[in-house]
């Protein structure tokens, strides 16, 4: 009997992990496909940073506005269905129209859906208790988002020869799997709660004097009062709790310097590299007899290659928790941003004055390969560890005694942090436009005009 029960617990955890992995993978894969296809979506004379701007600004609006505008509990099924419809519509617009303005509109639709979807899945992870299970869900979701980078960049690497219309059109079918996974595979929070998962670190989730009570299931539509057992007897608590704007500000204020600033810095530097510097990191096409020559056939292969390398290392680092590695201590969360700044400076100098250019271009390509790999590792570690630690933070005594308020506080806190990475990407898209232009001019001045041929 005990063996059967242990196997059932493993099956439920596997379903939870696979579900959140698929949520991260499918929700983010369209975003990555659009970025990887930047060279093919706009004319050669158009800075690729415009794609990045339209691919992140609507997402930022969703992440900034939705947590503050939402009142009461999250209706997950309705929101995910809406995200699915909007994503499909956006990708179909991109594939159906050749004009730049219509393609940017389609990108904006997909971006808003992706931002709202990411916010929703991170909030959904907080409905699973104890805290170790919530961390399990976050780890697999982060791994899925990293996998989306690898799948999206790799997919466009192989199908871009089919053209934008067919390649983007085929990808419009992917969002349909999100509501299917939510309905058919994801275990309900009540199932997890019934199995009484518990570990040593979960003791912080309760306070002396309060009996532990699992948080309400997210799709519980019953608006009747909740009976909460207390030391003095049963207490009737209303479910229709709503956090005020002051409550939300009090919750988000401690997160600004501890979590949001490091995450903002990492993404500002990371996407400045990806959209402003990487398009200019081009070298003569290597001979076919070399290893790099088997991968790089033309100058237009460099930018998709750098994106593929970056996305692969992001996947590895975002999967660190799901692979069983320990999280970074909170005090080390600024470290990825510091390393990211050093990588940006090195690649910037190489693009501008050629500090990594050698007689053998193969060594130059190798150096850039290693630096972009390190960039991806820093970005992935910052993402997964930030959201993990936010989800593991303690709640006050008043919140723990009221399960509905505790649920809404956790949902809001993890949802509000997403503003930081999206704002960093948005600023990077603004910076990358003039950065790419000026770096190309600097290369032309020193007699290297390869960037002008892209």
TrEMBL record:
GO biological process, one term: amino acid transport
Record localization: Endomembrane system; Vacuole membrane
Key words, A-Z: Amino-acid transport, Membrane, Transmembrane, Transmembrane helix, Transport, Vacuole
Pfam family for this entry, one: CLN3
Transmembrane segments annotated in the record for this chain: 12-38, 50-68, 80-97, 103-125, 137-158, 164-185, 255-273, 337-356, 362-384
GO cellular component, one term: endomembrane system
Domain of life: Eukaryota
Positions of region (Disordered): 202-233
InterPro entries documented for this protein: Battenin_disease_Cln3, MFS_trans_sf
Membrane topology value: Multi-pass membrane protein
Family the entry assigns: Belongs to the battenin family.
Family annotation (PANTHER family): BATTENIN (PTHR10981:SF0)
Name of the protein: Protein BTN
């Amino acid at each position: 009997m005990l063996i059967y029960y242990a196997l059932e617990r493993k099956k439920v955890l596997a379903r939870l992990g696979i579900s959140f992995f698929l949520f991260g993978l499918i929700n983010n894969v369209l975003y990555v496909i659009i970025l990887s296809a930047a060279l093919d979506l706009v004319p050669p004379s158009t800075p690729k940073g415009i794609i990045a701007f339209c691919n992140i600004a609507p997402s930022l609006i969703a992440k900034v506005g939705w947590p503050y505008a939402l009142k009461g509990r999250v209706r997950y099924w309705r929101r995910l269905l809406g995200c699915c419809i909007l994503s499909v519509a956006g990708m179909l617009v991109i594939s159906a129209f050749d004009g730049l303005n219509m393609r940017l509109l389609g990108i904006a639709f997909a971006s808003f859906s992706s931002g709202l979807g990411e916010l929703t899945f991170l909030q959904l992870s907080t409905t699973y208790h104890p805290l170790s299970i919530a961390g399990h869900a976050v780890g697999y979701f982060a791994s899925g988002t990293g996998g989306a980078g690898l799948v999206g960049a790799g997919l466009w690497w192989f199908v871009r020869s089919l053209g934008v219309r067919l390649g983007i059109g085929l990808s419009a079918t992917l969002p349909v799997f999100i509501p299917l996974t939510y309905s058919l595979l994801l275990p309900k929070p009540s199932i997890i709660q019934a199995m009484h998962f518990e570990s040593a670190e979960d003791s912080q989730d309760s306070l002396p004097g309060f009996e532990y009570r699992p948080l309400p299931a997210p799709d519980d539509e019953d608006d009747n009062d909740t009976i909460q057992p207390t030391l003095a007897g049963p207490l009737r608590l209303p479910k229709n709790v709503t956090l005020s704007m002051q409550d939300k500000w009090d919750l988000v204020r401690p997160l600004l310097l501890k979590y949001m600033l490091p995450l903002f810095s990492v993404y500002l530097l990371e996407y400045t590299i990806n959209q402003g510097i990487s398009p200019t990191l081009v070298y003569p096409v290597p001979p076919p007899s070399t290893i790099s020559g088997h991968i790089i056939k033309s100058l237009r292969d460099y930018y998709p290659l750098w994106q593929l390398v970056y996305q692969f290392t992001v996947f590895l680092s975002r999967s660190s928790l799901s692979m069983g590695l320990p999280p970074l201590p909170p005090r080390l969360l600024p470290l990825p941003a510091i390393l990211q700044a050093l990588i940006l400076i090195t690649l910037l100098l190489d693009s501008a004055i050629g500090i990594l250019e050698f007689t053998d271009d193969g060594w130059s390509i190798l150096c850039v390969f290693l630096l972009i790999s390190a960039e991806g590792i820093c970005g992935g570690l910052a993402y997964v560890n930030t959201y993990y630690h936010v989800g593991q933070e303690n709640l006050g005594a008043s919140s723990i005694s009221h399960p509905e308020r505790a649920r809404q506080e956790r949902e809001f806190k993890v949802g509000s942090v997403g503003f930081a990475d999206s704002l960093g990407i948005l600023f990077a898209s603004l910076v990358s436009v003039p950065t790419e232009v000026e770096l190309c001019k600097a290369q032309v001045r020193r007699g290297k005009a390869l960037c002008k041929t892209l």
